[in-house]
TrEMBL record:
Keywords: Signal. The keyword Signal applies. The lineage of its organism: Bacteria, Thermotogati, Deinococcota, Deinococci, Deinococcales. This is EF-hand domain-containing protein. It comes from the Bacteria. It comes from Deinococcus hopiensis KR-140.
């Protein structure tokens, strides 16, 4: 009888998750330098945002994005490289080749895709990767992820804590439901 109750509880929570789910927003922490790079980053993020899942720029942290190198990294670019990542002191920098083989907008999308772990620059890929609901990191939000969430339900755990409040509860189930698409 106990397994039936557990299954009933899980089915009920999945139904609740699908009903409670609401529009989500994620932030990308990078620090673009200069109007040209800032505009390219904003346009790139707009391209993967949707009404239900917006992606916003947060300039309070993350890698510094610049056009060209500066200081110790002001070495010439390989002409075939559109961008490069370097460490300068405590900062990680993504530098874009001003004479690169692709337009700046494309180079920014490529660099951000690498930075964010996106396999492709689409709203669907961003929703899966950035929502936090892909708990096992396999590139899809599915019942395996729900099983991980439910395994940690009611506990103080990092796996399944989608809202960052240090516990896995109904709020996390709701966030999962907003991202799950059967």
């Amino acid at each position: 009888m106990k397994p039936v109750r557990c299954q009933t509880l899980r089915s009920g929570l999945l139904a609740l998750a699908l009903l409670v789910g609401s529009a989500g927003a994620v932030t990308v922490k990078v620090r673009p330098q200069g109007p040209e790079v800032t505009r390219a980053v904003q346009e790139a993020l707009n391209a993967i945002s949707t009404k239900d899942s917006s992606v916003r720029l947060d300039t309070d942290g993350g890698a510094v994005l610049t056009l060209g190198g500066s200081g110790a990294t002001a070495v010439p670019f390989n002409p075939d490289a559109a961008w490069r990542t370097v460490k300068v002191g405590n900062d990680r920098r993504i530098e874009f080749n001003p004479q690169g083989p692709v337009p700046l907008a494309q180079a920014v999308r490529e660099a951000l895709a690498t930075e964010l772990g996106l396999k492709e620059w689409t709203a669907a890929a961003a929703r899966v990767r950035l929502s936090g609901a892909d708990l096992n990191g396999d590139g899809s939000i599915d019942l395996t992820d729900l099983a991980l969430l439910m395994k940690n339900y009611g506990q103080s755990a990092t796996v399944g804590d989608l809202n960052g409040d240090r516990k896995v509860d109904d709020a996390d189930v709701g966030l999962f439901g907003a991202q799950y698409r059967p």
